[in-house]
Structure formats: structure tokens, C-alpha cells
Amino acid sequence: MKSSELQSIKQRYNIVGNCEALNHALDVALQVAPTDLSVLIVGESGVGKEIIPRVIHDNSPRRREKYFAINCGSIPEGTIDSELFGHVKGSFTGAINDSPGYFGVANKGTLFLDEVGELPLATQARLLRVLETGEYIPVGATEVRKTDVRIVAATNVNIRQAISEGRFREDLYYRLNSIPIQIPPLRDRGEDIVLLFRLFAMQMAEKYRMDKVVLTEEAKLMLKRYKWPGNVRQLKNITEQISILSAEREITPDILAHFIPQDQETTQLATIHSEGDHSFENEREILYKILFELRSNVNDMRREMSTLKKQIEDVQTAPTAIATTQLAPIQPIQPIATAEDAVAEEYVEPVKEPENLNLDAWSRQALEKALDRNGGNRKKAAQELGISDRTLYRRLKQYGLDK
């Protein structure tokens, strides 16, 4: 867009500032205006999102048709479907006449849905159908009606987070977000802050016939360093307060400090949820971690039980024909130093092994043998047994073998 055209638009809509991000937003709005594509305007509360839909409507083929701006967050949940899509007589208590709703009245025109992130899920489903097919059913009606409405939506809600929490439909988000327009916060607009202060001060002086307040250079720097969580709306309120309450017309940092809050650590206003809303994102992550850990433990136990079962089966199927006298468990062969030692070896009475070993005893014995065969190396012993290192350490501690 040419600089002259941009300045013309700013003068027409009383837009003050030369911020590059703001100029880009206006440029996108003018480019998308001749089309029927849905537009989603994103920005913090108080940045002036309501100007963009007017620019789009006034520069579109629908400019001679009706334009409605609707704050979705201000309409009660029980009546919002009736407000948007209309109703028929007798459909609910108080419905004494038919109502076409905004989608009926604004046919061929433009609807600006501000705070669209506050819409109930049921209303979101209805809105999605209108956007896709142009069809809707009034509350209490049975026949489908058609409408041709251009939708421009705006929100200060983190839509991605709302989708993850199940508060906003993902398919509706992509349908609304055909053309996204981002409005920059006031703290990122630099010199525009001073220009806006000057505009608001001039408006107050003309309205109440008083001398205009002006900022010193130090006060301008202080104004630009502030984070402005309330954005343009907050700046306008503070300018009005200074214009009325300050005895001095030249505003210094000391005077300005009395009007600017000094405890604002955050850069944006806290998100306000309706009653009953709660973010389960952190709880969901914790549950996922617990489930993954439980699944890992179950797999470790399954492998360990399979190994122990195989060892038990091997013992039970061992040859017993020669065992007229129960032999001692097989021990590692030791070198025989002398003939006397060999004779003594023959007369050592075998140690009888308990006949009914429970599962814990077999598990302990398997662990001890694995450790012996691997020279006490726990990692190798765990690999031989087919279990994880953590499971091996847990078993060693259980059987008192971790010392």
C-alpha cells in the first residue's frame, strides 16, 4: 500500500501511530476487504481491535449493507443462540414474537463477533455450520434458513490453549482464521505512545475548554518504558485523569508517577474464566507421566516373571532317576589340592535344598547367581535376567542384597 493511501485511512478512522506492525495490520485489512474470506483479529484487550472490522466492511462490496458489532462475552449463555440465530414465537418463555436474529438482519452485510473465544461450545457448532454452508436454524424452528453474512471475529484469548482445554472447537478456529490479523500491544509501539497521549490530551482540552497538558522529555521516556497492561484504553484513562486532576499543565516524571501504577509486574491482564472453568493441562501431563511409568513397570515385571517361570520349569523337569538321595545344589568346581582333600570331599554330607521354594526365594536365588556369574556387575546381571536396571535395584533392595 502506498504511504498516501495509508495516511488517508488513518485520518478517516482517527488512527494515530506509525508503528510498522500496525501499518501491516491495516495493509492486510485493506487487501482482504474486497473478498468474503473470514478474518480473525488477535490482540490483547484494549489495543483497538474494533477499528479493523470497520475498515474491512467500509472497503468491501458490502459497504452499503448493514454492519453489526456483537460482544459475545456480554450476552448470557442462555440467550446467545436466540440473539445470533433468532427464534420463533413460543420457543421459550418470553418469546412472544418471531425474531430473525443478527444473522437474519445482517444478511448481505458484515458481522463483527468480538470476544469470539467466549462463545459456548453449542453455539460454536452452529456458527461453524453458518460459515461452511450459510445455513442455520432459529431456536424452536424446524426449517433451515439461508444467510449471506461476512464474518470478522476478534479475541484476546489464547485460542490454542482454549482448544487444548476443550473450550474452543479446533475446526471453527481454522474456519475463522482464514486471514489472521495481529494487532500489536501498546508497549511495542514506541513513539506511538507519546502521539496517542498528545491526541487524548488535545481531545480533553477541546471538550472541557482547558489548557492542554504536555509531557517533558523525561516524562515521555517514562511513558514509553511502562508496560501498559491495559494498552490504549489504559493510556486514554490516565491521560484523562491527568488532564482533570493535575494542577500543572507541564507533566514531569514526578507528576506522572502519581497516575501510573507502580506495582505492574505483568505485561498483560490476567485471563478471566467463567465459573467452573479450570485448566487441566498440568494435571493431564502428570497423569501421562504416571501412566507411562506404570506401563514400563508392568513390562519389566512381565519379563521378570517370564524368566522366573522358565527357571522353575527347568528345575521341575530336571532328571530325578539318580536322585535316590537328594543331592546338594550344584556348586562351582573347586580345584583339588591333595588326595586327602579328595577323600574328604566324598564324605561331605550333602546340604538338602527346601522342596517348596516360593517365588521370592527363586527370584532371590536367580539374582544371586546372575550377580555371581557377572562378577557383581549389576548392569550385566540385569541384561542376563532380561529386566531393567531400575527393576534390578528394586529387587536387590527388597532382598537386602544392595549392600
Q: Can you characterise this structure?
A:
With 403 residues, this protein is of the alpha/beta class. It is built from 17 helices and nine strands. It is elongated. 25% of the residues are buried. β4 (135-136) and β5 form a beta hairpin. Strands 2-3-6-1-7 form a five-stranded parallel β-sheet, covered by helices on one side. Strands 4-5 form a two-stranded antiparallel sheet. A two-stranded parallel ribbon has the order 8-9. The longest helix has 36 residues, at 281-316.
pLDDT averaged over residues: 83
SS elements, strand count: 9
Catalogue the unreliable spans: 264-279, 320-328, 333-357
**Secondary-structure-derived class:** alpha/beta
| Number of contiguous helices | 17
Main β-sheet, in a few words?
Answer: 5 strands, parallel
Strand order of the largest sheet: 2-3-6-1-7
Helix content: 40-55%
Shape: elongated
Terminus-to-terminus distance:
78 Å
Radius of gyration: 39 Å
The amount of beta strand, in percent, is 5-15%
Order of helices and strands: HHEHEHHEHEEEHHEHEHHEHHHHHH
